[in-house]
Amino acid sequence: MSTKNTVILGISILLAFIGASAIVTNGMLAFKSMERTVVVKGLAEREVDATTAIWPIRMTSAGNDLEGIYQSLEGQSQKVRAYLLNLGFPESEITLSTPQIVDKLAQSYGENSPLRYSGSVTLTLYTSKVQTVISARQQLLQLAKQGVNLASEDYNARTEFLFTGLNELKPEMIEQATRNGREVAQRFAQDSDSVLGKIRRAQQGVFSIRDRDSTTPHIKKVRVVSTIEYYLTD
């Protein structure tokens, strides 16, 4: 091969290399441009009323006559049941637990107790009449006047309020969270002199249901946070 042909071949290879490099470089720049993204959080919150109430009513009795303890607990249970039925709660929503009796003489701490036996029984109401439960709880003095010895609520016997309508709220709340996230991403794009593109990926957060506050457990706050990643372009 002549020197002239060798030079021409070398120039051709060089030009081809430069052209290929330009194509690869432009492709990388385009790829990097498509990979510019922003990740935002979209929030949706709702306050809703509880749909179900679980109300355990625990009654107690103490004495030295075991049979008398059982009779006392039975009489108190009948009065509480009558009270609930009179408020319009159906029999099917009321359940009664097995009485629990403690013999204090069989316990080391009860040797000096003047009353040998103490007993308790719990009547539980499971209902969708939440507002009626709230009103009834505020009028428990009526039961006390009838000789019902009501135990104070503790962790194992406290009134619970539940919200069971989450499935109906989900679609609208997810839409709201997505819309909220897009507004945040749009502001970010404007501040960075970019154009907001399509969604690259989205992750729906876990729905949480909590009491609005400690004084109104029958009002719930439903919350969801979605994580959304958008493309950014110039």
UniProtKB/TrEMBL annotation:
Q: Which InterPro entries match?
A: 26kDa_periplasmic_antigen (IPR052022), SIMPL/DUF541 (IPR007497), UCP029033 (IPR016907)
**GO biological process terms held by the UniProt record:** DNA damage response
Q: Which Pfam families match?
A: SIMPL
Protein name in UniProt: SIMPL domain-containing protein
Q: Which organism is it from?
A: Ferrimonas aestuarii
